Amino acid sequence: MAMIDVQVQHSAPMTGGNGNAPPVEAAPGVARSDVPTVSSERQSLYAGRVKVYPKEAHGRFRTIKWIVMAVTLGIYYVFPWIRWDRGPYLPDQAVLLDLPARRFYFFFLEIWPQEFYYVTGLLVLAALALFLVTSVAGRVWCGYTCPQTVWTDLMIAVERFWQGDRNQRLKLDKHPWAAETIWKKSATHISWLLIAVATGGAWVFYFADAPTLAGELVTFDAPMVAYLFIGLFTASTYVLGGIAREQVCIYMCPWPRIQGAMFDRDSLLISYRTWRGEPHGPHKAGQSWEGRGDCVDCRQCVAVCPTGIDIRNGPQLECIQCALCIDACDEIMDKVGRPRGLIAYDTVRNLDAHAENAEPLRLLRPRVILYAAAIAVVGLIMVVALSIRPVLDVNVLHDRNPLYVRLSDGGVRNGFTVKLMNKLYLPRAFKLGVEGLPGAKVDMVGHEGGVVPVPPDNIQSVRLYVTLDKQGARALAEQATTFDIVITDIASGEETAHEATFQGPPR
Amino acid sequence: MAKKQGETSADEETTGHEWDGIQELNKPLPKWWLYTFYACIVWAVGYWILYPAWPLISSHTAGYLGYSQREIVAADLVQAQADKAGFRDRIAASDLETIQSDPELLNFALAGGAAAFGDNCAPCHGRGAQGASGYPNLQDDAWLWGGSLDDIHHTIQFGIRADDSETRNSQMPAFGKLGMLKPDQVSDVAEYVLSLSGNEGDEDAAERGKRSSPPIAPRATGRKAKAIALGAPNLSDELWLYGGDKATVVQTITNSRSGMMPAWHERLDPATIKELAIYVHSLGGGQ
Question: Which class does domain B86-166+264-281 fall in?
Answer without folding.
Answer: mainly alpha
